[in-house]
Amino acid sequence: MERFSGFPAALLNGLKTAIVYFFTLRFLRDAVALARDVIAMCRRYEKLRDDRRGARAGCPPKCGRVPPDIYRRADPLIYSQRYLMEQGLSVTWDNPDIQLYENGNPVSSSSLKPGTDYEVRATIWNNSTKAPAVGLGVDFYFHDFGIGPQPIVIGTDTVTLPVKGAPGHPATARTIWRTPGAPGHYCLKVQLNWAEDANFKNNLGQENTNVGTAQSPAVFTFPVRNEDTVRRSLRLIADAYTIPPPVDCREKPDKTDSDKRFPRLATAPVHNEYSEKLPDWAFARSRHGPSAHPIPNGWSVGIAPETLDLDGGESQDVKVSITPPDGWKGRQAINVNALMGADLRGGVTLYVIRGEGG
């Protein structure tokens, strides 16, 4: 009987020991888990701090991580013949973004007077809707009529270029140019200088035109110069491209439709520049491509010589004879482009005119 009288006390002690053991282990587990949670939180904080480096202060934790070398960049541009031809487009050397003025009146670069002050205006565009270009530098040059001569500095200007579509876009750069004392034809070049440019390849535009009257035929002579330091072979080709009227935005297809409609023209561009919106090169090639602007029927264009092998710095005169069909009256543009392989090295736009009495 005495053996059973101590049973409740022993049971109570055992239960007490089990409870202490249970809670001790639970406490240890909780302590270990808490330590692990604290370590994990510290690691997450360090990763979040690295990911958010450079982000604005109010950005919530789920903001996407933007690497420090990626940011919004302005894309100042001008009508650039070399860049456009790289994309498979025909070009004109009668640059729509470069214009000369005398006493406030527009004049052609093909009919300039010697020793005369002209105002040169360049229209500068921004292809970015996010980033302006404040303090954009613009350089103006000229050289003798032809292909490849070394340019001479006219002057510089600095403009503030807003984002595309904003008030003040496009911007206009200006300089005063006093033409040389010797009469002749001269060509203009405009170079944009922006260190953080999204696309450096559309920053050089050229104005290079001449006008001739079609007697029988219209004859143009101009030099072609190899501006490189090594021997180059150049090939001259002609087309009749002029900038067509703009398309109504309501009638313009989107890029996907253009790629399906013109599959042979939807090739990848040579230069994949940064762009906030992918350009529709297929639709552009359908309107501005070489196949859409051949020499008109009945016209004859002779280029002598058609190929040139020139040493570095060497020049050679080229003669272009353009014969319109009988009875033709009006004004026709013929572009002559100098190519080294597929690389455009320069060109001229020749205008043939014939009046009612011609």
UniProtKB/TrEMBL annotation:
Q: Which domain of life is it from?
A: Bacteria
Protein name from the UniProt record = CARDB domain-containing protein
Organism phylogeny:
Bacteria, Pseudomonadati, Pseudomonadota, Alphaproteobacteria, Rhodobacterales
